[in-house]
Amino acid sequence: MKLYRVFYDFWRSNTYALKPYLINDGKKHPFVIICPGGGYGMVCSHIEGIPYAEELNKRGYHAFILFYRVKKKARYPQPQEDLQRAINTVFSHADEWNLDTSNWSLWGSSAGGHLVASMFIEDWGVPKPFALVLIYPVITLGEHTHLGTRKYLLGKAPTKEMMDKMSIHLHINKDFPRTYFWNGTIDKSVNPINSDLLEEAFKKVGIPYKRDVFINVGHGVGLGKKTNAKEWFNNAIEFIENE
Fold it and tell me: What is the pTM for the complete model shown?
């Protein structure tokens, strides 16, 4: 009930909010900004936000969960504006919150992964993170997309131009951040082809990355405990700590 209450209190107003999970030891720590998934129709912080933040705190990271606009308010570019605002807010409080701004990363699950990655296929004027961590991310808004994600972000009848504009793999360049990402083989919500497309784009451009593919794992598993994806969190931490 406690986790649900936190989720509901922030999401019910469907507006921007940033929930900090700070380590209160007076020391400077690296940090992560987390964008939970939910197909741009909700913010699933109870699965892909709070558990990540709490585990990150245990590993020595400050964490922030972004509650971005969804449903009718999710039309592009409003979620991207919310993430831009979150990044700028966090950096403006870096000294006050003891943040190591040279060592930070952006994490996103599902549509939250799309949101995170979309910040670096256009110029949003935000600092470049040391790494991205994308958990079963939506990458294409074309043929193999998650239809709910596309509908809420671009509307019911988007043009091909807009679908291409917001398909991450079509815009990867040499300045895209190094990335850890993973998908499960039986994901029925976000087709694993999305991760295939991302990997192909990274290989073409030469972006440093690590991809995990977990057998018999579906969608929305969060930390993946009691699944074949249970090691993904450790793998992500290893990736962002060891270049």
Answer: 0.94
